[in-house]
Design a protein that fits this description.
Layout lengths: L5 H14 L7 E5 L4 H17 L2 E8 L6 H14 L4 E6 L8 H19 L6 E3 L4 H14 L3 H4 L5 E2 L2 E2 L7 H10 L17 H17 L3 H29 L9 E3 H5 L3 H15 L6 H12 L7 E3 L3 E6 L2 E6 L10
Parallel strand pairs: 1-2, 1-4, 2-3, 4-6
Antiparallel strand pairs: 5-6, 7-10, 8-9, 9-10
Length: about 325
């Protein structure tokens, strides 16, 4: 008796590894766009869930970004059922403009998923997404091009809260092959093709093939492996920064004031993370590396410079040997800013 197609086996093993140790009876929802990655994930999750006793379903979000978006969403529902999902929920959203189209669509998508979980009374459930090793490699390359730090270079986390990404160890070619073997018909989003103005699409269709041709087929696993290593490092540095916050004098939630002497004695990698965490805990954000560098200069290179403006109407300033993060005071009437 022959086993499943190797690509099908790879997707099932990835899901089984991701949910190992979970209590039977818990719900696994698959975010399903109808593309090959999410369809292969739906099929693998249905197979694993039935064997392990998990409840399972799929969520299809209609972003309304394509002229045929309603038909595409309906097709995704149909294919999710064929993949083995008995429960499929569909929700249409309106995508905003904050942070660009890709980011706005992601925000709308996760808000819709959260609403469905609320409607189902299922906030303890897990949501599985179909991000692959190729997505991880592309994310790392884009972060490198932006000059990002270790946290951004660590790429997409395998798990964050109730979001799980089992396929970060699976190649995109395997999800396509799994769909073919299972006779599923995925939708291929034209926005993923080069020439549509998306940087990620250009990286996917132009840059990655060129890198593989020059550096060999191991470039995608290599970038993904680097992300995994950096994730562990970034997690540890964040842990140390939070420990420093917990040990620091005063409370960031009540005073927002931090001793310059204490901050200046910390290693650069810990202090920079602490400054970002402190600012964002006060309500500022998103805090970029440029903001952190300017705040750090108040601690380590102070020459009487003024307050640092932070997003959200906040500022960081130095007063009497302390770094203060607080709401930016209103500009006096008639004063030019």
């Amino acid at each position: 008796m022959t086993g499943p197609h190797p690509a099908v086996a790879a997707t099932r093993n990835a899901v089984a590894d991701a949910v190992e140790g979970m209590d039977p009876g818990i719900r696994l929802w698959v975010a399903c766009s109808g593309g090959p990655d999410s369809l292969a994930l739906a099929a693998a999750t249905a197979f694993v869930a039935k064997k392990a006793g998990f409840r399972h379903g799929a969520i299809v979000v209609d972003h309304g970004l394509h002229p045929d978006s309603a038909d595409i969403a309906n097709r995704a529902v149909e294919q999710a059922h064929l993949a083995g999902m008995a429960a499929v929920r569909k929700k249409k959203v309106r995508v905003g403009t904050e942070g660009g189209l890709e980011a706005a669509a992601r925000i709308a998508r996760y808000e819709a998923i959260g609403q469905i979980l609320d409607d189902e009374g299922d906030r303890q459930a897990y949501v599985l997404t179909g991000h692959t090793m190729d997505d991880q490699a592309e994310t790392v390359l884009l972060a490198l091009a932006r000059g990002s730090g270790a946290r951004a270079l660590s790429g997409i986390p395998v798990r964050r809260g109730n979001i799980i990404r089992p396929f970060l160890s699976v190649r995109r070619s395997d999800t396509v092959a799994a769909c073919e073997a299972l006779r599923l018909t995925p939708w291929h989003d034209p926005m993923n093709e080069p020439g549509n103005g998306s940087r990620r699409a250009e990286v996917r269709g132009v840059v990655m093939p060129a890198l593989a041709e020059v550096l060999g087929p191991g470039v995608v696993p290599g970038l993904a492996r680097s992300a995994s290593l950096l994730q562990a490092d970034a997690d540890e540095l964040d842990r140390q920064a939070r420990a420093q916050i917990a040990r620091a004098e005063g409370s960031p939630d009540s005073s927002g004031q931090w001793s310059i002497d204490m901050l200046s004695q910390l290693p650069d990698a810990i202090r920079s993370r602490m400054l970002k965490l402190v600012a964002e805990s006060r309500g500022a954000g998103p805090v970029t590396s440029a903001h952190v560098q300017s705040m750090d200069a108040l601690v380590t290179q102070y020459r009487g410079q003024g307050a640092v403006s932070l997003p959200g109407g906040y500022e960081a300033r130095r007063e009497y040997g302390r770094l203060i993060v607080d709401v930016r005071p209103p500009t006096p009437e008639g004063e030019i800013t």
